[in-house]
TrEMBL record, chain A:
<comment type="similarity">
    <text>Belongs to the binding-protein-dependent transport system permease family. FecCD subfamily.</text>
</comment>
<feature type="transmembrane region" description="Helical">
    <location>
        <begin position="121"/>
        <end position="143"/>
    </location>
</feature>
<feature type="transmembrane region" description="Helical">
    <location>
        <begin position="99"/>
        <end position="115"/>
    </location>
</feature>
<protein>
    <submittedName>
        <fullName>Iron ABC transporter permease</fullName>
    </submittedName>
</protein>
<feature type="transmembrane region" description="Helical">
    <location>
        <begin position="70"/>
        <end position="87"/>
    </location>
</feature>
<feature type="transmembrane region" description="Helical">
    <location>
        <begin position="282"/>
        <end position="304"/>
    </location>
</feature>
<keyword id="KW-1133">Transmembrane helix</keyword>
<dbReference type="Pfam" id="PF01032">
    <property type="entry name" value="FecCD"/>
</dbReference>
<dbReference type="InterPro" id="IPR000522">
    <property type="entry name" value="ABC_transptr_permease_BtuC"/>
</dbReference>
From TrEMBL, chain B:
<protein>
    <submittedName>
        <fullName>ABC transporter ATP-binding protein</fullName>
    </submittedName>
</protein>
<keyword id="KW-0547">Nucleotide-binding</keyword>
<feature type="domain" description="ABC transporter">
    <location>
        <begin position="11"/>
        <end position="244"/>
    </location>
</feature>
<dbReference type="InterPro" id="IPR003439">
    <property type="entry name" value="ABC_transporter-like_ATP-bd"/>
</dbReference>
<dbReference type="InterPro" id="IPR017871">
    <property type="entry name" value="ABC_transporter-like_CS"/>
</dbReference>
<dbReference type="InterPro" id="IPR003593">
    <property type="entry name" value="AAA+_ATPase"/>
</dbReference>
<dbReference type="Pfam" id="PF00005">
    <property type="entry name" value="ABC_tran"/>
</dbReference>
<dbReference type="InterPro" id="IPR027417">
    <property type="entry name" value="P-loop_NTPase"/>
</dbReference>
<dbReference type="GO" id="GO:0005524">
    <property type="term" value="F:ATP binding"/>
</dbReference>
Length: 336, 270
């Protein structure tokens, strides 16, 4: 038996998903009272402007800086967690995550070309997006037989190839560009604005709606390709279609927020332990938990050191590693 | 396309050939599957039983020949049409990801709504409870599939096939890895469904007890086809399995009973 019912977990997560961004908006270098946060949001929704100078300033901090940041963190966490969950289902590999298929290294190469090459005149985020899409396109072409093994092997091969090219370019670049690439690759939501979050928001929301509609075939795929075939599932198109959807989600997120690892690996594991992974509720729970976790990690990254921000990617990697080590220790104790 | 003129023929395999990269696995197989009958596919390991079934449920395309379902080539059915008529219980189901028995069962309902349609969970639960009761597993619905015993897992997979409301049930070695009690229980359950069944079975005595018709394969060819007492003879068993046997009438049934001479096995002669 699983420890929680999906409904119970959702009933816990939904209020958390509403309150967490509000708390993240309230806390920061300039602490803002919770009532002021709600007031600023209400005024923005009603298209009103405060006449008080202090309130105007806090409204600007809330609406222009912290709100887009909290929302971007929420979208990023949800998108990466759902991508991980879907990829683990379609490859039946609990270690699959969005970065396994060259997405991260493709984005890094694109970013490095933008920062160092001078040959690319597009903005960094566009280059990173294109880089990761090209990487996934190559993986999909190489693994067009749809076999899980080919898919994972192509992903690993392309990932290493692109990383080596990226590192070579970085080796010959100037230290300033190297610093910029390092900062970008460690992940941050500090560049969040309303305009930067539109593209990932639209892509992630659309992808999650499509994935939700395909829950049943995805669950059938968890019981094996041949079994899914006997249920009338078009295994190959489903697998490649889901890979492309998750690639679009992850590429748009990596391009906007940089490399944030482990969320796509850790959240599906937690959901699987709590409620199992083969239900529509588990998809929603995965998205909510991913979003909530990312909001809190970003908040910690902002607050843990005074007047300094830690990279979010480093925090998630630490958290993820500790989680998996804990999981292993618990498992070893059970078998002792 | 050739049309079968026999009215009670549910499925027909005609001149089927299939070659793996290394050898000819199925060699000019032709037989009929009669409506409502239990057909057993017999033969030693690697003879092509699973390959034949895979051709019958469209997982593999034969090199030549055809499979007809209700007088229509199976390739002329859409994926969903075919799954609504033919359900399959595989030898292995690699169910992971902490899926509960109920969640595994629910995958059998894919065909009942289009991807854009809303799932009616209440109606589905009624259906799932009905088949769980049929396989006597109502109390195990919320248990993780992998934590169930081999026999229970097999019954869940049969229940899932039943959710498809099929005309034909294809089973690939359904009694594999099960103890004697579960073997009989599973085959009794399948027999009680009163639908057309095609199953590959290793145990000759079980196949004799449950099958209306048996197909005996050797080197990918059909070397015996008919009622158990016509197919299972000491000579045919020795030719195919390399073991001497006595075949007589089962003391509490009409079917043949096979007794093995355990000291007279000669696989090299097969």
């Amino acid at each position: 038996m699983l420890p929680f019912s999906p409904r119970f977990l959702l009933a816990l997560l939904i209020p958390f998903a509403i309150i967490s961004p509000l708390i993240a908006i309230a806390l920061g270098t300039a602490n803002i009272h919770f009532n002021e946060v709600l007031g600023a949001i209400t005024r923005t929704l009603m298209a009103q402007v405060s006449t008080d100078a202090k309130t105007m300033l806090s409204d600007r901090i809330i609406v222009e800086l912290r709100m887009p940041r909290a929302i971007l963190a929420m979208i990023c966490g949800a998108g990466l967690a759902v991508s991980g969950s879907v990829l683990q289902s379609v490859t039946r590999n609990p270690l699959a995550d969005p970065y396994l298929f060259g997405i991260s290294s493709g984005a890094s190469l694109g970013a490095i070309l933008a920062l160092t090459g001078g040959i690319v005149f597009l903005p960094l985020s566009v280059c990173a997006f294109l880089g990761s899409l090209i990487a996934v396109a190559v993986v999909v072409v190489m693994a067009r037989d749809g076999q899980v093994e080919t898919l994972v092997l192509s992903g690993v091969a392309i990932s290493f190839l692109l990383s080596s090219i990226a590192n070579l370019l970085l080796y010959f670049s100037d230290p300033q560009a190297m610093q910029a690439v390092l900062f970008w690759s460690l992940g941050s939501f500090s560049r969040a604005t309303w305009s930067t979050l539109i593209t990932p928001a639209v892509i992630v929301a659309t992808a999650i709606v499509i994935i939700y509609q395909f829950q049943r075939p995805l669950q059938a795929l968890m019981v094996g390709d041949e079994s899914a075939h006997t249920q009338g599932v078009a295994v190959l198109p489903l697998r490649l279609g889901m890979l492309i959807l998750t690639a679009l989600m992850t590429s748009s997120l990596v391009a906007t927020c940089g490399g944030i690892g482990f969320v796509g690996l850790m959240i599906p594991h937690i959901i699987r332990i709590l409620i199992g992974s083969a239900s529509a509720s588990s998809l929603i729970a995965t998205a909510l938990l991913g979003g909530v976790l990312m909001v809190w990690v970003d908040l910690l990254a902002r607050l843990i050191l005074p007047a300094q921000e830690l990279p979010v990617g480093v925090m998630t990697a630490m958290l993820g590693s500790v989680f998996f080590i804990g999981l292993l220790i618990k498992r070893n104790q059970r078998f002792r | 396309m050739s049309i079968s003129l026999l009215p009670n023929v549910h499925m027909e395999v005609k001149n089927l050939h299939w070659r793996s990269p290394s050898k000819q696995v199925l060699n000019d197989l032709s037989f009929t599957v009669e409506r409502g009958k239990f057909i057993g596919i017999l033969g030693p390991n690697g003879v092509g039983k699973s390959s034949l079934l895979r051709c019958m449920y469209k997982y593999m395309q034969p090199d030549s020949g055809e499979v007809l379902l209700n007088n229509k080539n199976i390739n002329d059915y859409s994926r969903h049409e075919f799954a609504a008529k033919v359900a399959v219980v595989l030898q292995h189901a690699p169910v992971g990801f902490a899926m509960t028995a109920k969640q595994v069962l629910a995958t059998g309902l894919i065909n009942q709504q289009k991807w854009w349609q809303r799932i009616n969970h209440q109606a589905e639960n009624v259906e799932i409870e009905r088949v769980l009761e049929l396989v006597n597993l109502s109390s195990k619905a919320e248990q993780v599939f992998e934590s169930l015993s081999g026999g229970e897992q097999q019954r869940v997979l049969i229940a899932r096939a039943l959710l498809q409301k099929p005309e034909i049930l294809l089973l690939d070695e359904p009694t594999n890895h099960l103890d004697v009690g579960y073997q009989v229980e599973i085959l009794k359950l399948v027999k009680s469904l009163n639908i057309t069944v095609v199953a590959s079975i290793h145990d000759l005595n079980l196949a004799s007890a449950f099958c209306d018709k048996q197909l005996l394969l050797q080197h990918g060819k059909l070397v015996g086809c008919g009622q158990p007492n016509q197919v299972l003879t000491p000579n045919s068993i020795e030719d195919i399995y390399g073991i001497k046997t006595d075949v007589d009438k089962h003391p509490i049934g009409d079917h043949p009973r096979v007794t093995y001479h355990f000291d007279e096995v000669n696989r090299a002669a097969v």
